[in-house]
Design brief:
Layout: H1 20-38, H2 44-61, H3 65-72, H4 74-103, H5 108-117, H6 120-135, H7 137-143, H8 147-169, H9 180-190, H10 193-203, H11 210-213, H12 223-253, H13 259-266
Length: 267
């Protein structure tokens, strides 16, 4: 029995499989969030966001998405990346932002180090480095065949995405100069790397990842077709999510007098 989803040579089966490592991680996140939100007067709507984030993370890592993404389909791998990095991570922060704002320091040495570690530029750099590195064929093919390696990729996606989205969602540390137009620019530039990866996938004339090329076919798609579909998913769905968020940010910012200040307070 595998504790985490990783690549192998077994034919794909729709028979349910249990991955205890996934359940332990999700349970730990869920328990932590439950205790955190329970003692921090988190508004009901934010709690809903947080629990949707937990469920999204679980769906992305567990059967069937987990094993399909780790071993059989580049398309599933692309969907998993988007679910973790562009859906689960921001929802988890939306669910925890009130509690984080109440508990984290706003002055002194603690605030200084928080400003350093959670600087938007650093968050964007780390997120993009992780995104690029984990989609390099040599890295992906090397790590995905080991359970610890596959876990490292999934965990790196989650942590780097939380780091990236922090500056947009959590209002601590306070950044009075990080106004909505700059936030929108940060979101657009900071998340554009995945579109470059998608374009590379779409332009390939041969399969890109040995893991998915040599895997037993889970669908009727060839390895090359699967890669191009994965590129389309990364491009269209990823851009759709980002531009949807940018649209909401723009209309909130331009919605009336004082919207900028109020928006900063909410975030």
């Amino acid at each position: 029995m595998q504790w985490w989803c990783s690549a192998g040579s077994e034919p794909w089966s729709w028979e349910w499989q249990w991955y205890p490592g996934v359940w332990i991680l999700v349970a730990a996140v869920a328990l932590t969030y439950w205790r955190f939100s329970r003692h921090s007067a988190t508004p009901p709507r934010e709690r809903t966001y947080g629990w949707i984030g937990v469920v999204t993370m679980w769906l992305a890592l567990d059967w069937p998405m987990g094993p399909l993404a780790a071993n059989y389909l580049a398309t599933a791998h692309a969907i998993q990346f988007l679910m973790i990095s562009f859906v689960a991570a921001p929802l988890l922060l939306l669910g925890a932002r009130t509690g984080l704002a109440a508990r984290l320091p706003r002055a002194g040495r603690g605030d200084f180090w928080l400003r350093v570690v959670m600087a938007p530029l650093l968050g964007a750099i780390v997120f993009n480095i992780v995104t690029i590195a984990t989609h390099v064929p040599a890295v992906n093919d090397t790590l995905m065949v080991e359970q610890w390696g596959a876990f490292a990729i999934d965990f790196a996606w989650l942590v780097s995405a939380l780091w990236f989205w922090w500056a947009l969602i959590v209002p601590v540390p306070v950044r009075p100069l990080f106004v909505t137009p700059l936030r929108m620019l940060y979101l657009f530039i900071g998340s554009v790397v995945h579109t470059g990866i998608a374009i590379v996938m779409l332009m390939r004339e041969f399969p890109m990842y040995g893991v998915y090329e040599l895997a037993p076919r889970a669908t009727r798609m060839s390895a090359l077709t699967d890669l191009k579909v994965a590129g389309g998913v990364m491009e269209l769905i990823g851009i759709g999510i980002i531009f949807g968020i940018l649209t909401v940010m723009f209309f909130r910012w331009s919605g009336g007098t004082g919207a900028e200040v109020k928006g900063n307070d909410r975030r």
